[in-house]
Every structure is written in structure tokens, then in C-alpha cells.
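> Could you send the Glutamine--fructose-6-phosphate aminotransferase [isomerizing] prediction when you get a chance?

Sure thing. Input:
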Amino acid sequence: MCGIFGIIFAERPRRPLGEILRRGLERLEYRGYDSAGVAVVDRGLVVKKDAGKVAEVAQRYGFDSLQGVVGLAHTRWATHGKPDQVNAHPHVDCRGVIAVVHNGIIENYAELKEELMKRGHVFRSETDTEVIAHLVEEYKKQGLDTFSAFKKALSRVRGAYAIALIDAENPRAIYFARNLSPLIIGVGEGFNIVASDIPTVLDHTKRVIAVRDGEYGYITAGEVYIEADGVPQDVAARIEEIPWSAEMATKGGYPHFMLKEIYEQPESLASTAAGLEPAQLEAVANALLAARNVYIVGAGTSYHAGLTLAFILPRLRITPIPVISSEYAIYEDLYDKDDLAIAISQSGETIDTIKAVKAMRERGVKVVAVTNVVGSTLSRESDVVLYTRAGPEMGVAATKTFTTQVLTLAAVYLTALRALGHDVAEHQRELKAVPDLARKTIEKTAGTAKELARRLRQRLSAYYLGRGAALPVAMEGALKLKEVAYLHAEAYPAGESKHGPIALVEEGFPVIFVFSDPNTGEKTLSNVAEMKARGALTIGTVPARSDYAKKLDVAIEVPQTSELFAPILHVIPLQMLAYFTAVERGYDPDKPRNLAKTVTVE
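Output:
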């Protein structure tokens, strides 16, 4: 989990190259922030790097003063070797003329390293990445030009990678390659960019090419060249215009991206609703109704979003099989050409989900992708794609990811319901009203969530309970509290709580109930009573004007809507509760420890 940014200009830019690289890294810091570094060519290769956050390292080593026309930058989340100056990227060859940055894992690095050491190469770091620089150096020594040496090096490495490399002896190109890990090209006038994701390039250009798995090539200031299996690709036909503005990828006056993105949800939901394509929905609904088995695949927040669909599909006489992406092999012997998989990933680059989808497709399973990123790996590995169109999500803790995914999946359900002959006009009106209801939810519940955070900040643990279709919302709420506030939070089916978990409940123990499923509310009240009898602090998200509020110590009222869209409204105060609790406890919710935005390694 690392971030890559490289840029090459036809002539020296108005701002120092180092400043441009530093700004690119700041856009990428959510992908990893235990170390940072840059490499530029300016009368030789200059490398500056160290452990620490981007701003700290940049100031310490004077990034902003570095000059040149070609450079690489990297922010790291460690996978091989501890976060320190030696292991920080970029890595260089023995002669100090080749610099490489990398996101992913080189699986066979140990054997390559041993081979290269026998040939006299000296390694400075514990990382897997360094072997790439030495491989290219080795093949250049054998008489190959840089691009040929780079290609030969790629033929030797196994694993997931996005790579960018510069050579001070051939400084008019940045060489790149991709396998599984995300990589894009930003196409400019008099410059080109290689980067891990779209928001990083928006300060410079909105014209983007998504590099596909197995592709490699180079950029110069005026050319983008891509090959696959030795065959040049038509890059001009693949340029896409990104509708996001650079401002959409900044905090916009909010103290943190997470809070900004919680408040952006009405706009994101409106964009999702407006972008739903009837033909695509009908294709998915028809496949859903015709499938033998329906697998709903996702990781983390996306898995929880998928569960909101899984809990209501039985009403269509469909028995779904929810699959945590990393556990896809459990059902491997069942996958069949008559099956359907709905694979969900905000980035479309989550490696566990990509691997699950590839395994399913090998056995003929039809795949529907639900993703936010056009041109992502998941979108290309799928038969049908439903884009959530939520805009960039910079906060590590997913917020609008969940709500826009739930809305998209609810639209699939409605389309299937209509295909079975049901009248869904009222539900369609509710769908269009969801963005405004989300806005009202934020306005009505922010104050209560902030006050509750003050009460939770000294607690060590909490339960999140729900029944039926409310359970995925409880799971998502608990995940958010764990991710950003570092409080132990467990979600359970409310009826299961008395089978063991209730033993932990004592005076003041926080128990958060979710009343988003109208079919299970009365039964959930019995669990409220059980917790109150043990002295728990009972909190609940409840529909406005319901009687549930009277039974709770603290009720967070949200606008009423059907159970299809209720998860969207009920999760919003839980997102805010997690955010404000993190702030109360003195943590930065945009940089939760040990986490990165997109999980691109196993």
C-alpha cells in the first residue's frame, strides 16, 4: 500500500520540480504515510527520503528547492522492512543512476536478491523493491538500453506491482509497469505523469489513461508509449476525461477529509442516483434472476454494503452467498457458468476482490462490478459495471463509499422486483428523495453525535446491535469506531448478544442499537431491555416519530424511509459518532494507524 507520483516536463517548470513532487505526495498520503521520498535528475541523480509524514520529510530535506525536468516521488506503507530512511523509496542501483518506486509485493525477491548478490550487487535495504533497480542495472551492463533492460527485469519478477523508474543516463523518460496494483497516466501539454490514482493528477490535467494489468511502457514529455506482450497499444483511444475538479479532492475548508466526505454524501448520492443507467440495471437484474448461485463479494465496508442486498434478496426467492473477498476459495469448487457474482470495491483495485473475481471468471461465473473508479481493474475484469459516481474519496475510513454502494444495490433490487411484475413507483420516488433525506440526517444528528462522542471517549469497548437488515449497518458502524477512534467495537445480531457477549456489559457500557429494519424493531426492543437491566448506556438510531426512542437512553432520530434506503440514513450518525470520537480522543481520522485507503497487497 504505497503511493507513486512521477512527472516529466519538456522544459524546466515555473515551480521547482521538488515542490511539484511534494504536492503530488500530499495527495497520495492516504495510501501510506510511514515514509516518503523523491528522486530527480539534475546533473546526476538526486535522492532525498526518510521515515515520517510527507510534510516532515519534505521540510527536513528541502524537497521544494529541488530542480529538474524529471522526477519520482513515493509515500510508503511498509510491507517489507521497517519504516526507516534506508527502506524508504526511491531505491537505487549500485552506481546511483537508476531510481525506482514501487507499490505492491515482489514475491520472488529473495531468490532474485541472492542471484544478484552473487553477481556483485550490493543491497542497502530490506525491501523487495530494490531488486528491480539492480536487475535493470544488470541487464544494462549486458548491453541493453534502459527500456529493454526494464522489460527483461519485468520478465523475472513475480507478484503484484506498480513500478516507475528513471535513469540518469537516459533522463528523458519515466518507465512504468503494472500488474494488479493501480497505475494511471496523466496526459498533459508539454508534460506527462505516472501516478497511483486520479486525484493526484488533477492539479495538472483531467486527461487520464488507466494502465492495464500486464502493461508496461514509458512516458516522455510529449509521448505515452504502452506495450502488452510486446504489442504496442493504441493509447490515444484510451484517454478519458475525468469530471472531477481538483477542489473535489481537497478538504474544502473542513478539518479532515472524513468529515468533508460525510457532509458530501447528499451530493454523492444525487450523483449516484442520476447516473444509474436503466439498461445496465436491467442486465444485472436479469442475470440475478436467472442465476443458479449469487455470490456477493467484497472486503471491509464494501462487504457490509453487499450484505444490505444479501439480507433482502431472499424476498425474491434468491438465496445469496456473501463472500468475504479473501475467503473466496471456500466456494471455489462450486463456481459455475450459471452463477453470478456481484463484486463491490470503491477503488476497483482491492487485490483480494480482484483475485476472487479472476478465480470466478476462470470457472465461467458472470461478474457484475460495483465500483467508483472508471477504468479500474475490477471494471475491466467484469461483464457488467455499475459505477457509483461518488467522486474521489480521500479519507481512509470509507463513508460515501458505503452509502452510494447501498443505493446502487438497492436500485438493482428494485429493477429485479419490477422485472417480476411488481409496482416499484413508490420506491423509485423514495430513491430520488434519498439525497435530501441524507442532508436532513446530517443536519439533525451531527450535534447529538458530537455530544455522544464526549461520553464515549473514555470508554474501552462498545457493542453495535441490529436484527435482520439492520445488522450490516451495525457492522459498518462498529468498523468505523475501530478504524478511527481505536475503540474496541463489536457488531452482533441483537438476538445473539445474550449468548455470551452480554457477560461483558456493566454500568455505563455503551451499546448502540440500529433500528433501520422495520420488521425487527419490536424484537430489538427486548434486547434493549436486557442491556438496560445490566446498566448499559443504550443508544439507538431510530426512525423519526417512532416509539423506539422512549426505550433508549439516547435516541438519534433519522428521517423515515423504507428498509431499502434506511441503511443509508442510519449509518450517517454512526459515521459522525466515529469521527467525533476520534477527534475527542486526539486522533487524526484521516490517518488511522496501520491502515491505507486501498488494500493492494494480500
